[in-house]
Design brief:
The strands form two sheets. Strands 2, 4, 5, 6, 9, 10 and 11 form a seven-stranded mixed β-sheet that branches. This protein has a four-stranded antiparallel β-sheet with strand order 1-3-8-7, with no helix packed on it. By secondary structure, the chain is an all-beta fold. The chain is globular, with a radius of gyration of 13 Å. The protein has strands spanning 3-6, 9-12, 17-23, 31-38, 45-50, 56-58, 66-71, 76-81, 90-98, 104-106, 110-115.
């Protein structure tokens, strides 16, 4: 099983991007999917994720600006990012955490650069 992330790029502050992550296998019923990011010199941090109950968790810095959604039929999770800020610049990683084992599966990362 692999995760393939796409949709990153260069955008001006205030702009929007939508990231997509496709799982190669039908694992969406086994995992909680989410997005993390890692800026240069910083640790990887949670951006947004689904919980086992289907609710959404967001990091405080992105609340009200980012929205995580999914299409189970397409094995895909999305991250809609609006009102982007320069501090959102990072490599964004798709994550699938298996609910039973808590094993983490990671995508390859997609660069998001926000120019001020």
């Amino acid at each position: 099983v692999q995760l393939q992330a796409s949709g990153g790029g260069l955008v001006q502050a205030g702009g929007s991007l939508r990231l997509s992550c496709v799982a190669s296998g039908s694992i969406v019923h086994l995992v909680n999917m989410g997005w993390y990011r890692q800026a240069p010199g910083k640790q990887r941090e949670l951006v947004a994720a689904f919980t086992s109950g289907g609710s959404r968790n967001y990091a405080d810095p992105v609340k009200g600006r980012f929205t995580i959604s999914r299409d189970d039929a397409k094995n895909t999770v999305y991250l809609q990012m609006n009102s982007l800020k320069s501090e959102d610049t990072a490599v964004y990683y798709c994550n699938a955490r298996f609910r039973i084992s808590e094993y983490d599966l990671w995508g390859q990362g997609t660069q998001v650069t926000v120019s001020s």
